[in-house]
Amino acid sequence: MNFRNRDEFWAFYVSQHSKPSTRRWHFVGTLSGIFFLICSLLFSWWFLLFVPFSGYGFAWYSHFFIEGNIPATFGHPIWSLLCDFKMFGLMLTGKMDKEIKRLGKRPILQVF
Question: Transmembrane region positions (predicted)?
Fold first, then answer.
């Protein structure tokens, strides 16, 4: 699936995270990834090994077992990472629900 710009991908990304528990697991994964990144800077570079496992582990679990779709990371890794941080920021500030309403109901598309 091709996207012309970041806004198109963002609408798709949000549609792939339609369930609140999927978004919560993503939040936990991103937060734990940030935690391990900070630990690697403060204590030992070995903590870097846990960054992708914790971040992607929680997120992929939510896609396979809660949302029932394929993670957008498989088809668009860079845009997915950027949108994950955007979603994390919106959730942290309490604005994600407003963003979901702004986008309206979108069809849930598969990456492949």
Answer: 27-54, 74-93
Could you give the CA distance from residue 72 to residue 4 in angstroms, rounded to a whole number? 16
Q: Which amino acid belongs to residue 83?
A: C
| Closest among 21, 23, 4 to 99, alpha carbons compared | 23
Give the containing element (helix H, strand E) for 25.
Answer: helix 20-42
DSSP, res 45: G
- State both tokens at 102: 């702004």
Tokens linked to 103: 């986008």
- Report if pTM > 0.90: no
Residue pair 111/72 in contact by the 8 Å Cβ criterion = yes
